[in-house]
Amino acid sequence: MTDADRIRDTVLDLRKTLQAHRARRIPITESDTIRVLIMPVLEALGWNVRDLEEVRSEYRHRTSDNPVDVALFLQRSPVLFVEAKALDVSLDDRRHLVQTLNYANTAGVDWCVLTDGDDYRIYKVHAQVEAERKLFLQFRLTGEDDVGDIAARLALIGRDKMGQRAIDALWQDWFVDREVGKVLDALLEDDAFIRLVARRAAGVSAADVRKSLRRAQLHVDYPDIPVSVAVEAAVAQAASEPAALRPNGGSPPAPDAPGGKRRDLPSTRDMITAGLLRPGMKVHMPRYAHSTATVIDGRQVEFNDERMSYTAWGCKVTGWKAIQIYVHAAVVDGPTLMALRDGMQQG
Questions:
Q1: Cβ proximity of 238 and 165 under 8 Å
Q2: Which is nearest to 252 in space by CA: 129, 149, 333?
Q3: CA gap 179, 177 in Å, rounded
Q4: pLDDT tens, the chain, 347 aa long
Q5: CA distances (Å), 83 to each of 57, 60, 123, 254, 332, in order?
Q6: Which of 56, 128, 170, 198 sits at 20 to 30 Å (Cα–Cα) from 100?
Q7: pTM for the complete prediction?
């Protein structure tokens, strides 16, 4: 059995376990969450949970520190902290995030995981941004994502991948793409940029350019590739670079396909053309109440009596400055936009 198969089988088993626990409606404690839900994942990821030089519970970097639930070590140095909450305790409380980041920062650990045994959130501790923007990956074992993709994301915090620093290379690419994309998006509202376009477009005024850009609803959106491909590419890259040149950061699904060409993934406009999305259809963010919007066309939805782009809607609902809308949005009582897109590619 390959490592990927072992992780995938563990995810499938835990899906059944989580379903059974929730069906019984018996509260599960934090310690039981760690024992029943989290430790099996760490073991599937190659961590020797019986070796105290590799996996420590209630670890204190200094005797005066608050303990972290699980600390993972390579060559006797902590490389990853896991902070657990009881199953179905909301991880959205900012205090949980700050607590987890503080534990890792104090110990000089660059990566940490906040989880309730189902919802996993992986953070880059020393990224020079505010706490919420340190979030790199978020997924649920019981979510709608393909089990193989969930296994690939988990593999990034596996013993072998952490040793290869694959997650660092992925973070770096993703972080750069996100920041550049935000700047390019902001340029669309920048007066100097508007005037530059007007000067280069014959017979067009700045007011014309502004109206045109508003009609276009332009947005910079880097396409994703399957996580498993990104992981293997990052491992290969890390292995080929001298240790001194390896980045101290990392990234999610990289923008380039295996052959080095940027993939042209289906958009919401393509989904409209294919009939997978239709004007009047309801879409929402499954994890957010009162998030339902109405599809207008392939570019816009209507939310709270206001027309906006899909991405603007996602940011408004979540409060985030940027969002992977295909991952987080779904048809009401239907699949995510990512699943629709995957279906179009496979078709």
A1: yes
A2: 149
A3: 6
A4: 778 899 999 999 999 999 999 999 888 999 999 999 999 999 999 999 999 999 999 999 888 888 999 999 998 899 999 999 999 999 999 999 998 899 898 888 999 999 999 999 999 999 888 898 899 999 999 988 889 889 989 999 999 989 888 888 788 777 777 777 777 777 777 888 888 888 988 888 988 888 887 776 655 554 444 454 445 545 454 454 444 333 333 333 333 333 333 335 788 998 999 899 999 999 998 878 889 999 999 999 999 999 999 988 988 888 876 677 887 899 998 888 888 887 776 66
A5: 10, 13, 11, 27, 32
A6: 170
A7: 0.61
CB-CB neighbours of 219 under 10 Å: 15
Residue listed under structure tokens 């770096």: 172
Which of these, 73, 67, 123, 71, lies nearest to 98 by C-alpha position?
123
Per DSSP, 223 falls in state: P
Q: Which residue has the tokens 């067009």?
A: 204
Q: Give exposure, 69-108, as e/b (b: 16+ Cβ within 10 Å).
A: bbbbbeeeebbbbbbbbebbbebeeeebbeebbbbbebbe
How far, in Å, CA of 219 to CA of 206, rounded? Answer: 19
Residue type at position 314: G
CA pair distance 57, 68, nearest whole angstrom: 7
Amino acid (one-letter) located at 20:
A
Query: Terminus-to-terminus CA distance in the chain, angstroms?
Result: 30
Give DSSP secondary structure letters for 317-335. HH--S---HHHH-EETTS-
